[in-house]
Structure formats: structure tokens, C-alpha cells
Amino acid sequence: MASSYIILIFLLTGYCAAVGSEKCSISLNSAIHPITHPTSWTSPSGHFAFGFYQEGGGFKVGIWMVRKSQNTTVWTANRDDPPVSSNAALELTPDGQLVLKIGPGETELIANSSDSASCAAMDDAGNFILYNQHSEVIWQSFNFPTDTLLGGQSLPTGAELHSSVSWTNHSTGRFRLRMQYDNNLVLYPKDTLTSGIDAYWASNTCCYVQPVHFHLYLNFTGALLLLDNSGEYAVISDLDTSSVNHNSTIYRLILDSGGILQLYSHRFAENGDDVVSLMWTQPDNKCGVKGLCGFNSYCTMEDEQPVCRCFPGTDYVDSTNQFSGCERNFKEEWCRDARENSSSFTFKSIDQVYWQDPPYFQVTMEVADCNMSCLEDCDCEVALYDFKKGTCMKQKLPLMYAWTVPEKSFRAFFKVGLEGIEAANTNNSNSLLRVLEYKKIVESGNFGLTEELALRPFSYKELKRATNGFKEELGKGSFGAVYKGTLYRGKRVVAVKRLEKLLNEGEREFRAEMSIIGTTNHRHLVRLLGFCAEASKRLLVYEYMSNGSLADLLFRSERHPDWNERMRIALEIARGILYLHEECDTPIIHCDIKPQNILMDDFWAVKISDFGLAKLLMPDQTRTFTVIRGTRGYMAPEWHKGTPISVKTDVYSYGIMLLEIVFCRRHMDVNASTPEEIVLSSWVYGHFRDGELDKLVLGEEVDKWLLEKLVKVSLWCIQDEPALRPSMKSVVMMLDGTTEISVPPCPTAATV
Length: 752
Ligand SMILES: *[C@@H]1O[C@H](CO)[C@@H](O)[C@H](O)[C@H]1NC(C)=O
Ligand SMILES: *[C@@H]1O[C@H](CO)[C@@H](O)[C@H](O)[C@H]1NC(C)=O
Ligand SMILES: *[C@@H]1O[C@H](CO)[C@@H](O)[C@H](O)[C@H]1NC(C)=O
Ligand SMILES: *[C@@H]1O[C@H](CO)[C@@H](O)[C@H](O)[C@H]1NC(C)=O
Ligand SMILES: *[C@@H]1O[C@H](CO)[C@@H](O)[C@H](O)[C@H]1NC(C)=O
Ligand SMILES: *[C@@H]1O[C@H](CO)[C@@H](O)[C@H](O)[C@H]1NC(C)=O
Ligand SMILES: *[C@@H]1O[C@H](CO)[C@@H](O)[C@H](O)[C@H]1NC(C)=O
Ligand SMILES: *[C@@H]1O[C@H](CO)[C@@H](O)[C@H](O)[C@H]1NC(C)=O
Ligand SMILES: *[C@@H]1O[C@H](CO)[C@@H](O)[C@H](O)[C@H]1NC(C)=O
Ligand SMILES: *[C@@H]1O[C@H](CO)[C@@H](O)[C@H](O)[C@H]1NC(C)=O
Hints:
It is a single chain. By secondary structure, this protein is an alpha+beta fold. It folds into 4 domains: 1-144, Bulb-type lectin domain (Agglutinin, subunit A), CATH 2.90.10.10; 297-424, no CATH class; 456-543, Phosphorylase Kinase, domain 1, CATH 3.30.200; 550-751, Transferase(Phosphotransferase) domain 1 (Transferase(Phosphotransferase), domain 1, Orthogonal Bundle). It is 17% helix and 29% strand. A 6-stranded mixed β-sheet has the order 36-40-41-39-38-37, with helices on both faces. Strands 29-35-32-33-31 form a 5-stranded antiparallel β-sheet, with helices on one face. It has a 4-stranded antiparallel β-sheet with strand order 1-10-11-12, with no helix packed on it. The longest helix is centred in the last third of the chain and has 21 residues, at 563-583. It is elongated, with a radius of gyration of 31 Å. It starts with a helix and ends in a 16-residue tail after the last helix. It binds 2-acetamido-2-deoxy-beta-D-glucopyranose (NAG) (10 copies). One 2-acetamido-2-deoxy-beta-D-glucopyranose binds at residues 341, 343-344.
């Protein structure tokens, strides 16, 4: 049993030392078959075998630990390929290739090596190795881990383990363990960007003696270590195994199909029986695994097993699969109707559930006001009340990553439709300044640039009259409702925004902020005409935009803008933001760039709205927000990390929105046909990396060069690391075609 020690020495020296040919038991021109003997090549100890094992209706090629009760698969070749039939054969060919012969004339490479092998070995650590004629290792299965690491095996920096679908299906499953360049070992759901908000467990070894890069190593005595090339290490798990007979004990780390990392020891007795013990496992809470339950469902433990339950008002997407997520079981566009007819909907509450999705709005209030506040807000679909902090957090669906918590510290309220409700065909929307029926009243251009730039103060009475008692509501956003009104004896149509729940109620601060917004003047910003600050009332008067929002144009209208239009819109928005950031007297960070806040005027020109308001929700000037202001999906990672908000925060949101403009779909689409398509940015990045952008716009006539340019700009804008994102000025220059755009890295590669 000395072999494992010999292998250890080889591992520590990079495995490049020569081995005696006696170790190399499989010679060229050998073959194995699924049902005729031999079906596998076994290691000298007999504990591991490489060959065909049964899966589904056929056979897969892999390595397993040989156990009396049930063999344990530790590696699978080409795991996402379908199983092969019993006619297949695995061959180490006379010319030194390891190939799988699937059928007549159909072969598949198992080991991709530039060199040809002269022999092969299944070793006692569970590693299948090909050697060349100089007895050098030219390929080894340990370099291509699937869901398992064995004692003596490493996970290099930047590499990942991917869980299997289930213990009987070893195709790629739903979770991944990533050994990050920042030295953190982190668990994520598979189809997410590598960002902190999706992580559900981390070793917290981040930033340890950087800039050295660690790899993960499971040593032969079951210690899970982070090593660098000089052998420095951080210990993740090291139980005292000094009393164990290591000669006959095998250690195995697996990322299981439920997303849990588990370290097992197998102690083999003389007769081949093994005693299994679970030595270490993370995370402890099986329901804390993000992505275990799909959208709009929450995880709860039943009989010590995690199960997924739908939130009120939703049903399983696939009623035979509890992990499939849930979708609304009533019509989406019922909000306005509901508010006018309170008998047409209700609230359902659940206690003790919690989710980490950031709310779009959070305020301190009584629990009984929390559902009322949600009721009045068309954007609000769910409210979560935190009893400890006394805060009400309003959210939109879909909700991700929810689970039950033991303490009675949260209550969630869900707006649900009453049974059988078919909300009337209201065709209104949640977006701000959404236009209903509008007859153009302003006939002449008299109210254009010639109008004085100074802000006009209005009295509350004046605005009440102008809006006919706040009669016609155009929309409702996180700041408050917007009403249509007319001024100057009906000659000028305006939009009056009634601000609610400002953190800073002071009139002086409000006036100061108004004067900053009032000095802005740019053709791609919605003009602020005046304001009202009387007692506790705060209202803003804007020019009226007749053509709805960019969200309507991209996501609702039948006809998508053509490519020239998309390019124009992208550029106009960029110019508007550039003005806010760099060209107006006091730089303004918008903080909530999204298609709902981009309005369209009579001539379909872009007008950015809601700028300058973020500060009114900020308690002080330190730029550390206690109230999360952005909108999920468009929010840069720094919102969740507590790092300072800067102009680069807007650049990130712009990048996400640019992708939406290019592909005329929402960043997050639960309804996407495949899981890869749900998150637009990761979907696009994958195709960009593989040089297959054209597959994303099948059937559309588009200049490939233009498409690539827009995608490159977006990917630079959504880099996790703010410093990597371009300034708005560079964005404009890149879009304008005056600068060369280099190839963007993976948006999330640099950090976390
Ligand atoms: C482990 O194997 C080595 C080498 O074969 C042997 O010297 C040693 O006694 C063994 N230890 C135990 C506890 O069996
Ligand atoms: C294994 O799971 C994958 C992904 O869910 C599926 O496509 C495949 O058919 C499954 N294989 C078997 C043999 O059931
Ligand atoms: C386990 O693997 C061994 C060696 O390949 C094989 O002989 C045996 O049939 C397998 N056992 C099961 C239950 O599949
Ligand atoms: C084999 O590896 C090389 C280099 O890593 C790669 O370029 C090539 O595409 C691989 N071939 C196959 C069939 O995987
Ligand atoms: C494995 O790592 C632990 C912790 O560093 C160490 O005590 C032990 O000696 C190591 N085992 C081997 C075989 O190197
Ligand atoms: C309110 O809803 C109820 C039930 O759907 C309906 O019967 C009633 O006509 C509605 N009232 C108004 C004013 O729309
Ligand atoms: C709001 O929640 C409170 C406390 O849970 C409850 O008493 C009240 O009936 C709810 N109101 C509505 C309209 O659901
Ligand atoms: C909105 O509603 C009106 C009248 O109910 C209908 O004629 C129109 O087609 C609807 N528009 C959209 C975009 O659904
Ligand atoms: C947009 O404006 C144009 C010109 O005023 C008008 O013809 C069109 O109907 C408007 N579209 C919408 C959706 O309001
Ligand atoms: C989602 O997909 C289903 C089935 O493909 C379809 O019926 C439904 O209208 C879609 N929902 C949305 C919001 O696109």
C-alpha cells in the first residue's frame, strides 16, 4: 500500500517525474466493453476502476470507487453526452489515443492530449493517467474534475467543480464550487454571474496573502487546504485523523446535487467492506442553497429534507417538479383596477420567510402600514416586514433565493388576485409617466428653448387646480405618483410628481436639490419646470412626454425598433448621462437608470427622467445608502457591498440597459426557453466569448460589426470592478465609432 505515498511525492513535484513501467499496467491496443469482460480497468488496490458503468438506459465512461454495497462514481468522461449503447468500446488504440467507439465509424476522444500515449494506468488514488514513451504524464483525469475531488487531487485557481443532476445522473447539475483568483472558495448556483449576491457559501479566505493565487487541495489524510506554489496554506477543514489507518482510508469531497459540499472518509477493511463517515459539510442550512428553489418559491425543511413551496398567488411552473419555480396564477396588469376596486384582490401573508433579494424601496413603519403601503404602490407586488428593525421592504416579482427562518422576525405580504378575477383590459402600466389617451394640446413650438430656464415655485393650490385635483394618474414609481396636468390656461401639458416618504424632509435641502436639478438643461433630459415645497408637501412639475417610456418600446410594443433606432437611442441616453456626470455644474449620479426612467417625446427623442432625486432619499452626503435605491437587475454590485456609489454605478446600469436595447428583452426573463437565457448578460457573454453573437439575433438583419460593438460596450460597462468600467465619455466615444474597443473580459472575472 505504499503506492499512495509514491503518488503523493509525484503530486508535490508536479507529477512530472517518470514512473517505472511496472506502474503502467494498460498497454496500447487494449479495449474494454460495457457488457463483455473486461468492463473496466481496476487500480492495483482494487479500490478504483475505470470503464463503463450503467446510467439511464445505457452506459457512461467514468471512474468509480469499488464498494460492496454501491459503487460511487467519482468522475465521468464527457458527462453531458448521452449514454452509449452496449455495442460501444473504449480503446487505447495502437497509435496511443484513448477513444470511445460509439458505433460503426463513430468515435469520441476521451483524453485530449497532443502527445500520443505509450501506456496507461488506473492508480490507487483514483486517477487515470496516460504516459508517453518517456514515462511522462501526458493526461490525467485528476486535471478534469467533475463533482468530486479525491485525496491527492487539486482544484486549480479559476477552476470549478460542478454538481451532478442527481446521484443516478452525472450530467452537469445546478451548482458550482469556484476556486477564485481572489483566493476565496465560493459556492454559486450554476447559471449565475460570479457575483457576491448569488454566492451561498464562501471560505472567507479572500484577500489572504494576495497577490499569491491559491489552489484547493485535498490531501491524503483528509485535510482540505488552500495552497500556493510555495506550499503556504490556509486550512479549510482538518479533522484530527491521526488515529486513522491512512493506508486503507480514502477521502472524497463532493459537491452534491443539492448544492452541499461534503467531505467523506471511506475506511476499507480487509474484506473490501468500507465504513463511510461524513467528516465535514457546508453550508449547514440545506435551504440556504441559493437557486435550489426556482423563482417565486421558498425552501423549507420537511423531514430533514429541503422542499420548495410556491408563494401565495403563484403555482409551480412544472407541477411535477417542485424545483421548477412558480409563476403568477392571476393576470399581471391588474394593479390600477385593484386600487380602484378593493374587492378584486387581497393580501396573503406568510410568517418566518426571508429572502436576500434587495427591495427597491425600504422604509421604517408599523407592520399594519406595510401592506397598505404596498397596496397603494403599483410597483409593489410583495412586502417583507422586518419586526426587529421595524422596516417595510417593497419588492417586485420574481423573487429569488427565499427560505424559511426559525425566528418569528419576518412577515411577507403578497398581493394576490381573488379567484376567478380577470382584471379588466386596462392596458396601463407601472412605468412612470405612462401615457394613456393624449391629445396634443400644445400646437405651436412656443414652449421650447425660448422659455426661461429658471425654476418656477408653485403653490399647492395651483398644482391641485392644474391637475384637476390629482385626477389623472399617469403612473406610480418608487418616489410617488405622477399626475397629468395643464398650465397656462391649458396651453402647456405637464406631469406633476408628488414625492412621498422622503428621508430628508427639510425644505432647505429640498430647495438646494431643486436648484441643482433646475440648472440642468440638455436635450436628452426631461425638463424640470418648477416645484412646490409647502409644509410637508413636495411636488415637482415636469414637461410632459407623450410617447411613453423606453420600457414600453422595448418590451411591450409589437414592433421593435430597427437597428439604427436602437443605436440612436443608446447614444442619446449615453449623451444624457454624460451630461449629468461631467457637463452640468454639479455632477449628478442618477442611481436608477432603467428603461422605465427613459421617456420618449413627440419625436421619439430620448429624455432621461428622475435624475437628481436619489439624494433626497439619502440621509447624508457620505454616499453610503441605508435605503437601497436602485432597481434589481440594473444595480451595480457595489450596492450590495457597501462600497461607495460613484458615476460608475450609473455606467453599470447603463450597460445592462444597453443589452436590453440591443436584444429588445428584459435582463431577467424567467420565461426564457432555456435556463442559460434567463439572465441576459451571462447569456450574451457566453455567446460573445464563443464568437457566436449571430446566434442571438437569428432572423434579424444586422450589421455584425455594429452588433459586436454594442455588445462589447455593454460588457465593459457591466464589469464587476467599477474601475474597469469606462466613463460615460468613453462610452459615447466608443458608440460614436471614434475609438477602438478592446475585447472585454468576463464581467465578473476580476472580483469576488
Ligand atoms: C501502512 O503501509 C506501510 C507501507 O506498506 C506500512 O509500513 C505500515 O505499517 C502501514 N500502516 C498501517 C497502520 O497499516
Ligand atoms: C440527466 O439529466 C439531464 C439534464 O437534466 C437530462 O438531459 C438527461 O436526459 C438525463 N440523463 C438521463 C440518463 O436520465
Ligand atoms: C462495482 O464495481 C466493480 C468493479 O468494476 C464491479 O465488478 C461490480 O459489479 C460493481 N458493483 C455494482 C453494484 O455495480
Ligand atoms: C484539445 O486541447 C486543445 C488545447 O487545450 C484544444 O485546443 C482542443 O480544442 C482540444 N480538442 C478537443 C477535441 O477537446
Ligand atoms: C494533510 O494536511 C494536514 C494539515 O496541514 C497535515 O497535518 C497532514 O500531515 C497532511 N497530510 C499529508 C499526508 O501530508
Ligand atoms: C369591483 O369588483 C367586483 C368583483 O370583481 C365587481 O363585481 C364590481 O363590478 C367591481 N366594481 C367596480 C366599480 O368596478
Ligand atoms: C395588513 O396587515 C395587518 C397585520 O398583518 C392586518 O391586520 C391587516 O388586515 C392587513 N390589511 C390588509 C388590507 O390586508
Ligand atoms: C388599450 O385599451 C384600448 C381600449 O380598451 C384598446 O383599444 C387598445 O388597443 C389598448 N392598447 C394596448 C396597447 O393594449
Ligand atoms: C408617438 O408620437 C407620435 C408623434 O406625435 C404619434 O404619432 C404616436 O402615436 C405616438 N405614440 C404613442 C405610443 O403614443
Ligand atoms: C411565458 O411562457 C408561457 C408558455 O410558453 C406563455 O404562455 C406566457 O404567456 C409567457 N409569459 C410571459 C410573461 O411572456
